Amino acid sequence: MKLSTKFISFIVIIHLVAVGLSLYIFKKEPLFFIASEVFIMLSLFIAWQLYNEMIQPLNLLMTGVEAIKDRDFNVKFLKTGKYEMDRLIEIYNQMIDQLRTERTRQEEQHFFLEKLIHTSPTGILMMDFDENITAINPKAQAMLSIQADAVLHRALSSIQHPVLQALSHLKTGESRTINFNGLETYKCQKAHFMDRGFPRYFIMLEELTTEILAAEKNAYGKVIRMMAHEVNNSVGAVNSILDTTISLEQNQPDVTEALQVARDRNENLNQFMRRFADVVRLPIPHKEPLNISALVMKTASLMSSVAKRQQIRFEFNFSDDDVTIAADVSQMEQVLINVIKNAIESIENDGTIMFETTHQPLQLLIIDTGKGIQKGIEEQLFSPFFSTKRNGQGVGLTLIREILVNHGFGLSLHTEQEGKTVFRVRF
Prior knowledge:
Layout: H1 3-24, H2 30-69, H3 83-119, E1 123-127, E2 133-136, H4 138-144, H5 148-151, H6 162-167, E3 175-180, E4 184-195, E5 198-207, H7 209-246, H8 253-280, E6 288-291, H9 292-309, E7 312-317, E8 324-327, H10 329-347, E9 351-358, E10 363-368, H11 396-407, E11 410-417, E12 420-426
Parallel strand pairs: 7-9
Antiparallel strand pairs: 1-2, 1-5, 3-4, 4-5, 6-8, 9-10, 10-12, 11-12
Helix pairs in contact: 1-2, 2-3, 7-8, 9-10, 10-11
Organism: Runella aurantiaca
EC number: 2.7.13.3
Keywords: ATP-binding, Kinase, Membrane, Nucleotide-binding, Phosphoprotein, Transferase, Transmembrane, Transmembrane helix, Two-component regulatory system
């Protein structure tokens, strides 16, 4: 029962008793009866005034409570001139001002944090109390080549992505470096903060690929330049001597043939070193608008004769929207030639190479039905001088990597299932 109802009930009962008593003395003392009626009326008036003064603060308080419940911190009350009422209003107004200030500060901090996460050069994944992903910033989406809709409200371990699978095993406070596909390297750290008494986890991803590749290129570049210098100096001098000796008339035919073999071997050695030097001397890309579908068709036509001899078919699945990028035409053509050549060698005979473009995300996929990549060597594929071919130099994929990284494009090479190896370029 409300306090106002209790108060009114009490006043009514008291005055009904008073009226009853006044009726009892009506016959004996009429003057006292009239006086008692005047007293009862005055008492009712005073009770009504007290009721208003007592209940009005409570009504105002309830109005303020409803405003707080609705998170409306703009409701304030004016003073009435009554001490108790004004004291209550003053305290309430001070509380509302403090709440409004605190909420404004929290909202500003929240918006700042959201903006900071959104524009951060570090990939960030936020998780709820059950460690399901609640937010993923644009940098993390770009680094992992995933869309937010595909991962939100899902546990890391339930998402089929090699990096996210590795992240699902991170412990709080642990920092780890993850190498993906032998090319992309991430520094990952897991931490937590307290929210309403429970820990909420977040993971930060920092891409180290560019720094590692730059250090790696600097190291092997010095070796290649030193080797090229020594080989060129030696080959030039030796070839000069061989040319002079071959031109002598008194040479026996078998001696001349042996000298020519030696000269040809020197020339092969010179070309061998030039291939390595090309990786180091790769020029800065001269970017211009490039229709990737048109370039794929042109390069496929160039490689079609080789493919036909091995009964390999080309298939094309281009998106409805033309995929146009800013890139160096000659360098991108070199990338496609090397990728197609590797796919043909992997298939060997009778197979298919599929060229596919997508608009969201913007990427090119080259899918072959070859024997695929052996387990355990994916992490070494793009390492300089590494090759699975018997006479391979390990230059082709390194050159591809350098060109695409210099353009700022992402790349990966996976055998997703038997008979399906995918080379992916993310623009």
